[in-house]
């Protein structure tokens, strides 16, 4: 769960910015929570990513890998995203994990595929 606010058509959490879907009425949004499921996050190498993280822990779980990552932030840009634990959980298939050749300590980019938006007790999706 990421905590932040909506400004200028984007969700801001720390120094991280995530564009809002056009279907959301941003006039009624202020403080927000964004829930991103671990399997809705893609790991990328290169500049096309939404956010940059460092892999902190890798756990093979059958045909999938569970990864724990922490934000990489530029000191001049301010803090990374606000999460409940300070960690970002990611889930990959075994093939994707092996193709990316990931290991603890690697810096990678994330692309977000789907976000569930929460404002108070309402789910905005």
- The total count of helices amounts to 1
- Report the principal-axis shape: elongated
What's the mean pLDDT score? 75
- Radius of gyration based on Cα positions: 15 Å
Low-pLDDT segments: 75-79, 121-125
Helix content: under 10%
Per DSSP E runs of 2 or more residues, the count of β-strands stands at 12
Q: In this structure, how is the largest beta sheet organized?
A: 7 strands, antiparallel
What is the strand content? over 45%
Secondary structural class: mainly beta
Helix-strand string: EEEEEEEEEHEEE
N-C termini distance: 13 Å
Characterise this structure.
The chain has 125 residues and is mostly beta strands. The chain has 1 helix and 12 strands. The strands form 2 sheets. Strands 1, 2, 3, 4, 8, 11 and 12 form a 7-stranded antiparallel β-sheet that branches. It has a 5-stranded antiparallel β-sheet with strand order 5-10-6-7-9. Strand 6 (51-61) and strand 7 (64-71) form a beta hairpin. The longest helix is centred in the last third of the chain and has 7 residues, at 94-100. It is elongated. The model is unreliable at 75-79 and 121-125 (pLDDT under 50).
Would you kindly provide a brief summary of this structure?
The protein is mainly beta and 125 residues long. The protein has one helix and twelve strands.
Give the tags.
single chain; 125 residues; mainly beta; 7-stranded antiparallel beta sheet
SSE blueprint and pairings:
Layout: E1 2-7, E2 10-13, E3 16-19, E4 31-35, E5 41-44, E6 51-61, E7 64-71, E8 82-83, E9 88-93, H1 94-100, E10 107-112, E11 116-119, E12 122-123
Antiparallel strand pairs: 1-2, 1-4, 1-8, 2-3, 4-11, 5-10, 6-7, 6-10, 7-9, 11-12
């Amino acid at each position: 769960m990421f905590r932040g606010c909506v400004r200028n058509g984007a969700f801001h959490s720390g120094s991280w910015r995530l564009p809002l879907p056009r279907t959301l009425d941003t006039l009624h949004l202020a403080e927000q929570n964004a829930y991103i499921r671990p399997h809705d996050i893609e790991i990328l190498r290169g500049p096309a990513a939404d956010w940059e993280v460092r892999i902190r822990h890798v756990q093979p779980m059958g045909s999938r890998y569970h990864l724990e990552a922490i934000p990489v932030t530029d000191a001049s840009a301010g803090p990374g995203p606000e999460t409940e634990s300070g960690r970002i959980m990611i889930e990959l298939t075994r093939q994707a994990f092996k193709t990316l050749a990931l290991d603890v300590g690697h810096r990678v980019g994330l692309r977000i595929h789907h976000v569930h938006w929460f404002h108070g007790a309402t789910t905005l999706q």
